[in-house]
## 1
Amino acid sequence: MAVKSNHVTIKGIKDGLVFLLDDQCDFEELLTELRYKLEHSHQNILTGPIIHVDVKLGTRSINDDEKQTILDILKKKGNLLIRTVESPPIGPEAEPLTGPVVMTGMVRSGQVLHHEGDLLFMGDVNPGGTITATGDIYILGALRGTAHAGVEGNEEAIIAASYLAPTQLRISELISRPPDEWETRETVMEYAYLQDGVMKIDKISNIARLGRDFNVFKGV
Amino acid sequence: MGEAIVVTSGKGGVGKTTTSANIGTALALLGKKVCLVDTDIGLRNLDVVMGLENRIIYDLCDVAEGRCRLNQALIKDKRFDELYMLPAAQTKDKNAVSPEQVKDIVLELKKEYEYVIIDCPAGIEQGFKNAIAGADKAIVVTTPENAAVRDADRIIGLLENSEVESPKLVVNRIRPNMVKSGDMLEIEDILQVLNIDLIGIVPDDEMVIKAANSGEPTVMNPNSQAAIAYRNIARRILGDTVPLMQIHQKKGMFTRFKKFFGMG
């Protein structure tokens, strides 16, 4: 039997052997090669005193049966003592960490920015502009337009803005109009960045102009 | 290749046509080769403000539909050899031309002229789309009123999603005494909301109305405050750094009297 490909790499470390098993190839193919190497090509190295073995599976995730199959093959060689089997956590696909999605830009009059989930918006929402989310809305900038959080009925949702002077606020089904007279507050959030080696300060609403790979909102 | 600048506002009556006429004339005054284009089909005014109404033979629609050559439709200004105007049609509506047709015409004009100033109609419909089709840059005109600022914001939003470079703002018709008494929106507040670069502020000036009625752009009159403001804008378009005009009230007889005696 000829094994052309090399899916199984055996490396010696100071106190044992490491079996590096390829994580891209077919699993059956991998087993065949492993058996072949143990029984034929590397026979002489694998006889003698007890050797500690670490098995590394890379990014391949395997179930318990598959793991047992690998162990059985290795156990056939009496001198191999399996110390560890390293593989990615088994179980449901690791859920990506859900945090607010960050967007920048400017919601101008007549524009609507809608987001499914929590939204962190860096920029201004102008009068006549609307920002909506099924979750929370955090605005780093001025909210002068309308914000609607928890649009699908989430009453736990919140709206936060560094400058809160909305035309109207809505959370879930509830609509609120700010008092006719707002106290005049002046809070302008700024950010610092480097340009040609010089630190510069600008308003947060200009952050989209940085040209970084931000999620910039382009409304119509 | 010249540069095409569209003058737009969203809201009507804030001074788009006046601004177009005056910026165009001011650029010509500074020795530039300029062509003004009126895209307000059906409600053309630019020709009236420029005092060229009675010279119109062909218009934008005639050029678009191939009834005449572009050069035949262009009207040479009374005052400047290097200032021309392409009038809009009065008998049709905005749908009479397409953005592609306007784009082609503007492109053709840019080969010949250093600046093509496009006067945009009010609104955000077809007329607006026609006007911005061929433009490289945009000037948004607003007045210190909430309604005008709101519409300017809408227009800026639309411009930001078009091919046009980020627009510059002109705040028109500022009344010095009202700013002083705090009854008018302050420039700083307007900029806070619109968040675009300011290219000029123009004080409210009765001479502008007088000039428009006589078909002579205000900018020709060096005694007018608005004229100086428009000249400054033209210089900024050319890349000069010109400080913003100080908006102040005309001094009354009494303060002048005090000043005379070294008391003011």
Note: Chain A has a mean pLDDT of 80.
## 2
Amino acid sequence: MNAGTLYLGAGFALVLTGLACALLRRNLLRMVLGFSIVDTGVHLIIASIGTLTGRTAPIIDDPALLSDATTLAVDATAVVDPIPQALVLTAIVIGVGVTALMLTYIVRLHDRAGTLDVRELRDLKW
Amino acid sequence: MNPVLFIAVPLGAAFLLPLVRRMGDRAARGLAGLTFAFVLAAVVAWLPALGNGAMLTVTTGGWPAPFGIALRFGLAEAVLIALSAAAALGSFGAVSSRAGRDATSGGVRGLVIVLLMVVGANGLIMTRDLFNTFVFLEIVSIATYALAATGDESRGLEAGFKYMFLGAVASAFILIGIAMLYRLTGTLSIDGIAESLMVGGAGAVPMFALGVVLLFLFAGFLVELKVFPLNGPAIDLYDGVSPAVMALTVATALNASVYAFWKLMPIFRAVDLTLVLMVIGGATFVLANLFALRQSRVRRMLGYSTSAQLGLIVMLMPLAHSGDVSATAVGLLLVNHTLAKAGLLWFAGSVGKQTLVEWKGVLAGSPAARLSLAALVLAIVGMPPFPGFWGKWDALVALSRGPHAWWIIPVLAGSLLEFIYYFRWLRLAHVPAEDAETKLEPTGSLVPAHAFGIIVLGAGLALSSRLVTSSTDAVLTLAGAGLVLLIAGQLPGRLLQFLSLAAVAASGWMLHQAGSLAPTSITGFFMLIVLFGAFTVVLAGIGTPPDRKRYHGLFLLLVASLVLLVDARGPLGFFAGWELMTWTSYLLVAQGQRGGRPAFRYMLFSGAAGFLVLGGILVALGAGVTTIGDFAHLAGPAALWTAILLGAGFAVKAASAGAHVWAPDAYTESPDLFSAFLSGVLSKMPLFGIVLFGTRLVAGADPALIGGTYGPGYALGWLGAITAIGMTLLAALQEDAKRLLAYSSVGQIGYAVVGFALLTPLGWTAALYHTVNHMIIKLLLFLAIAAVINRTGTRRMHEMGGLIKKMPAQYIAVLIGIIALSGVPPLSGFAGKWLIYNALIEKEWYFIAGVLMFASVIAFLYLFRLINTIFLGQLKPRHREVREAPAVFVVAQALLVFAIMGLSMFPDALLRVTTAMTAPFFGAAGVELAADGSVLVSLGYLNAFGVMAMVMGLFAVFFAWVLFLGPKTTKVGQLDIVMAAEEPPAPEEIHYAYDFYRPYKRAFAPVLRVSVERGWSRFAAVLSAVAEYGRRFYTGDAQTYLLYAVVFLGIAAVAVLSRLG
Amino acid sequence: MQAVLNLDIGYLGLCALSVIGAIAYGLLIGGIIRKVMARIQSRIGPPVWQPYLDVAKLFFQRTSIRHGMMFYLAPVFRTVGGIGIYLLIPIVAGMPGLAGFSFNGDVLLVIYFMFFGCLGMALGAGESGHPHAIIAVSRGLSQMSSYELPFSLALIALVAQVGTFSIGGIIEAQAGGIGNWYLFMNPLAGIAGLLSFLGMQMYSPFNIVLAPQEIPIGPPTEYNSTFLGLMMSGRAIFGVAKSALFMNLFLGGATSIPEAMIKIFVVYMWAVFVGAVFPRFRAEQSVRFFLRWPTWFGLAGIALAMLMKHLAS
């Protein structure tokens, strides 16, 4: 089992944990926490895609990473894929934004309803 | 110009807005408005260049596709961007009105979010990159969440949170899917992924892993698309958030998500998700429409509707992708939904009423708003000429020809459910003013809603060019005149009727020029019926113009649709005309003083009839038919099912027993003149359908099948017979003159149905003769009753009496009418009855003949009742000043009387036409027309002219006798009657009128206890209960919704992975 | 058309004679019936020629009242209806003048034309404004609709077997002895016909329309003088015509005038004797009566006709 698979497994485990938290906890804050865990798990899953044991980060700080010094072409087998890293960064940013918005909601909901119990939020149904 | 501007310009404006706002709110709003207007104008200007399928691919940052992000801009993208910009502009209009701003409170700051929403939507529409898709999806989602929170209702907060919570988890699923896809294929370009999955084939990518990955992506998107069972939070969102906001999201976030999903179809098709998508899409369409039945809140109802319509689109999407259904059809459905739903949401938001009960009578005082709401509702339920109709038609036709024909059933069932709640809403909004609890006080501008109504209508009319026939000139004349009169409703009614008459006459002339009026062709025969009926009714209308302002225009629109229907050259023309007829007549029924509820029923039953007819047509189309003539080539089960479905549809529309419950109220509560047209002409349209398709089916059918005694028509024959007797019996027990005629009309149509069901040349000749005869008579009777109601102000017969003294012309009209209708020789009705009985005995349908004979005697009861109670007996003191109907009115009736007399003397003239019409299909005439005017059939003979001569001769002799040899008579006073030496009391007390046939009612008590009405009520109650329990699925709990998503993912996984093996 | 226009004066004269004869015979039967009823009730009764005296008296009355146009025309309708019916039925097969205008139409025409006179009279009664008159019409129509059901069923059974609506054809089909009379050929339909004929003749227990002592003579309540005279004449010939129709349909028609007179008399008396025994029904009882046994017989008659047809083929 290589590191990539391990991270992948851990990522899915986090997603499941987060889902369980979001499903089972009645407190809104804990539900958001659950979502955050899911999100983290997802990030880990994405990161795991780029992970290849024995390769370094795709930052060309060492000429050894170049396959051809004149054209500055990168030795694709020496570095990990940079795209998942970019994805993770973007996803983290979006995740933070969404989490912040959720928390804003919770604050306003608490102001209005005075409760953090999700079961109290059932005025709209059927 | 570069399409990137459609993203960049709103984005720039969003950043600029806070700065500009320092110059004042007005400047900020101006900037936003200009931005949307710019995008809209640019896209619309671009549209013509894209019409031929041109496609523009833009690479960003100078990198081609696998490395850079590609954007694509074609016709579909342009239309969707135009919609999003238009909706933003409209919602900007709605939000910027002061009251609207209060409602959403986002104010100018909200406009930033609106701008970002447009950025996200336009990006999502154009991007060809998977991760970019995710990013734009998040932008529109976050914009939606933010807009949901801008309202100051706590409902909005609750809804927003739930929506956001599930949406966030869905985004996580999508993200997992995208990442894993990248891992499997090594690219993020959508086209690249699709290509690698296609080119690589099954071996290139581990299918099992691909299945798991796609499921994540799939489930995430389905949350965005609001399909069952993941639509809970979205529907709550509609319930909690301002409709103006939802209108914006429909045209931006929702459309963009749908299109993004569409772009991903090539990827999803790698594992065959067709069936899964069809099942959940179809289930959504049916269930969401079902649950919407029980909604008391308009917003939530619209939410269910959105979910339902999206379900239909999702169901068709995989087929559109595989080419089984044209993508254009699905696109039309989406465009139609966007325009109509956004319009309806703005409407709902501006009117500001929350529950259906509060809507009651809201629009009573504002005819323009009523028309607008009606147009939007008609658009969303897919009535012609709106784009949804064309989309649905094309999709259904394609389904019928493919392997998924059975899927037509849920589509039609869901569509019918949709009718129920939308038209109920329309009905409540139309309740007349005196019942209204509130008046329209818009909290926002209705302009955006009106604008979208006009756009959707315009789009539909542009698509209607598919219906060009030789009668197009006439149709356009009538429809154009109708639209003009609709707008010019304030002019004097007499003038409007006069203009209508001119339009009808002009269209008649055009049809004559186009050769569409040859009476021996089916088209010409029924076209003449339509024109004759329209002409007389409008002529009479010059005398007593209806007081409803919209009546005149709607009537011409109805006539236009009838011309379209009768001159239909193919199944599409027929069905489009049929549906146009349905909704124009629906609106006319609703014009009655208390027409709302009857019109609602009329619409439901007509809708059901329409779908049955459509079902029949689709079966035929599925079997390879393209023209109406091709119906003759149908064989086997296809022919049988076509005949059954068409027959059932026409039977419902003809108000056959069981489905008759719509008719009495609709006939009774319509405007009086329209009742005449409804009974005289509209009730003949199902018969036209039977003739049009029946002749072909008969011509193509096995002669042994048609010729036998108990062939395929036998059940229809009994249906017609039961209708005839049941309705006749009920007619005898009515107290309301129009209701009496209504039941009579339905019963008489039953006779014609029996005639057609015989499937013999004689039966068809009888039915066609009866059709014409009944049209003339019912026009005459309904007009006479209309005149009486107009003068006396009541429909209840026992409140009248003795009117022969005041309205002698009307008395004569009714007398001629009832003699002709009852079948008493020497007038025209007898020949009709005689033909029918001969045809029945010839076919050996003895028991049906018995039933019809019985029914025709019972008809005497109500006919005598009609003339006696109104015109004979004691004149009421309050009617002493009643005057005869206006001269023009009487002239119209005189036309009809002449027609009856002519037909009475020379029935052979009409029979010559009908036999020429049907003989080619049957290969025999069934009737021999002797040179001396006698009509000979296999069992009997009739010389109508001889009978007339005998009666007239005898009459002359004895009339002369009493006149010249009789006693000198003295006219006596009203109450001067023999009363066993007592003085008679007041006229009211001795006019034996109320409950006229009480002994008869007593004798028939056991039969009369059967109530079809009650049966339908029970059915409605059961449906309602199912909807009530079903909708409890949406508990309102965020965690339940999440659980549904997880469980759905699990079930879908099992379903898909088990297919992968 | 030509068939009517070609009629010569002589034929019309024969028809007129036949009509006058039939009215006279109808009035005579009326007188006989009054006598018979009186004897059954142990009264002496009026002389048999009493109806002639009544009619003559009415025709010579010099003044009358009128309630309006329809009131005035109703007796004309009544008479035209009665005479028209008579003329449409061939009374004696093959005898000129006694076939009248039966070339104009078949038995359906006859049946539907029966309503012509009834309708006219009902309308006149309606305009008189007398409640009794209108109540009587309400009852009459109720009863009429109910007895027409078994009668129609019997007729359908007959036509199913005979294969024609033409009265001449129906008579021909019954030629050759009493056993061929439809009454015996299909006794079930025959019974239905006999029972519905009772309603048609409106003697007790079905005399709910004229109903003496209850709604004094019903529709003609307001009529007198020539109007009533015409009505009585019309009623007399109408009775003869109905009986003649029954004779043609069920009793094999007639080949000579005496045979026709006898058969018509017998048919008439059938209703009279039943009436002598049974008291009057209420309106709804009468309706229910016809919708029960006579209707069952009629349906059974059709079934029998179908069976016989099936066996014959």
Note: Residues 113 and 121 of chain A are 9 Å apart (CA to CA).
